[in-house]
Structures are given as C-alpha cells and as structure tokens.
Amino acid sequence: MLMIVLGIVKLKGRKQQLERKNDYANKIYNLKYDRVFNKSVICGKDTRAINKILTDILEEEVEVIKYVPTYIKVKKKYSKYKTVDILAKVKDKIINVEINTRYDEIIKERNLVYYTSIYSETIKRGEKLPRDKVVQINLNYNKGGEKLKEKYYICEEESKKKYNENFKIITVNLEKYKEEWYRRNIEGDKRHIYLVMLSANKKELKMLSKQDEIVKEVSEEVFILNEDGSYTRTISIEEENRIIQKQRENLAYEKGEQKGELKGIEQTRIKTAKEMIIDGMGIDKIIKYTDLTKNEIQKLIKKIKEKK
Asked: pLDDT tens digit string along 161-214?
C-alpha cells in the first residue's frame, strides 16, 4: 500500500512539474502589454485588427479614420501630462482605449480623469459643443466577475434617463471572453476571436491563427517582438508593478491629505505585494517595490498558500 501511495505522489509531482514547464513555455509578452499591443495591432495605416476589435465591442461596424495624438493634459497633482494608450477617430466618435493589466479603484479613477480630460479638450473656448461622442473602452485583465462587458452612462437614478448621449464608458472582461471560448471548445468557432486574441498565450495564439488571417498577422508580430531581447526588457512586469504601486501611494496620500491624516499607504503596499506574490515575483523584488520587510512578505506568502 505504501509503495502505491508513493507511486501516485511521484506521478502527481511529475505532472505538476510538466504543467509548470508547459506554462512557462507558453508565457510571452502578449497583447496585455500596451507596447506589444501598439506594435502588433496599431500597425501604421493598417487598421484591420483594431477595426475588428472595436466592431466586436461596440456591436456596430467601425472603421478607424485616423489616430489622434495621445498626449493629453491632465489636471492632477502628481501628473500634468499623460500619454493615453490609444486615441482614435471614427465616423462620429472619438475612442479612447485603455489597456489595464489590473482593474481596481486607482485604475478606475485614473481612467476617468483621462476620459474627462479628452472630453474637455474637444471643446475650445468660443466654439460649439462637440458633436462627436467620446467613448472610453477599458480592456481589462484580472477583473473578475461574470459579465463579459459593462456599459456606463450618466443617467437619472430612478428613470435611468441619460443626462448626456455623448458620455459612454465600456469595460471589457477579456479573460471572461477567453473562458467562454474554452467552454464552447468548438473547432473553428470564431465568435469574439479578436477579443480572445488579446489575452491569449503563445499556444492559444497559434490555435487562433489557424482560424483567421488577421489574427495570424498580429500573432506573428507578437512572436517577432518577443524574440527581440532589447525590446522585451522595456516591458517587464516588475516595472509595471512599480508604476502601479506608485500610483496607489499617490492616491492614498491624496485621500489622507483630504482627511487630515496619511493612513492607507501600508494597505496599498500590502495589496501590491500580494499581487506580486501571485504573479510569482521573488521576495527581493517585492521588497524593492513595496518597502515591506522580508518577514512581512513571508507572512503574506503563508496566508496566500493557506487560502488555496
């Protein structure tokens, strides 16, 4: 009996090692990274891929006329200017696309500031109000929830009557789209293929490439970028976590100043550390980006393991 149990344990261990090896082999800097997205999807005058993505999200035929300069003024204490991820002009709309590797209160507040800044810049003193609708699309990773997509407007509380037709924010749960695609598990099923592509790993991109020529071209560009070591070094997840941590601390300071106190900084560091642990970051890097002690981080690791 003991020998059988040991044999089963060894088989499980080998299976887990193989799964980890396969996961590692399929990990790439994919389209969740805005720099990869811009290089692979926003390819000069070729707007086919972004047209397909926007058409699926807006549920109407979309054709990008031109890309608008993405350098906008932002009236914020910690950031006077911001380069938004994508700003495009279509027939009757200006579309701002933000790629969010995480989606929490700091990201929501930041993106709302970008949205209102873009909207205000469409109005010049002495001119009529803009006829174009301004739509912000949030492409979200690690969002959670069951809905594929959510639409937000300014409206009256009881009747839900819209206050302004020009205001619209859409959040897209990309991992939920991929989950639905796996659930269907139908060879050649092309429903939402362009949204599934945005969260696909190496293996999944190869599978999707067999179904669509545009996906194939985008995927090939992603693979080329991943072979360029000088390029991938500029988009590391460690740098991304450092930026998010700084944004969270800035927000905590702002809220603390409003209340006459500076509480909340420690909570933002703990939250960032937890996310870095889940992402598989080493303790030394977590210490570097959060200023927590080694002992504090080890306690967090223990708590995370206990919950699994």
From this structure: 988 888 899 999 999 999 998 888 766 678 899 999 999 999 999 999 999 999
Distance separating alpha carbons of residues 11 and 114, to the nearest angstrom: 52
Rounded CA-CA distance 148/9 in Å is 39
Q: Which two tokens stand for residue 151?
A: 């639409």
* Three-point CA angle 250, 255, 258, nearest 5°: 130
Angle (CA) 150 141 42, round 5°: 90
**Structure tokens of 199?**
């969260």
Tokens of 165: 């037709």
Give the tokens for residue 79.
Answer: 């950031």
What single string gives the DSSP state of each residue in 120-169?
HHT--TTSPPP-SEEEEEEEESS--SS-SEEEE--B-TTT--BS-TTEEE
Q: Do 181 and 259 belong to one domain?
A: no
Is-above-0.85 flag for pTM?
no
Domain that holds residue 290: 236-307
Residues 195 and 141 in one domain: yes
Please tell me whether residues 262 and 175 are part of one structural domain.
no
Q: How many residues does the chain have?
A: 308
Domain membership flag for residue 160: yes
- C-alpha span between 166 and 226 (Å, rounded): 39
Pair (250, 223) in one structural domain: no
Task: Tell me the CA distances in angstroms from 261 to 252, 254, 257, 264, one per residue in order.
Answer: 10, 10, 6, 9
1 CB-near residues (< 8 Å, 6+ apart):
none
Furthest-apart CA pair in the chain: how many Å?
A: 86
User: Which of 69, 57, 7 shows the shortest CA–CA distance to 169?
Assistant: 57
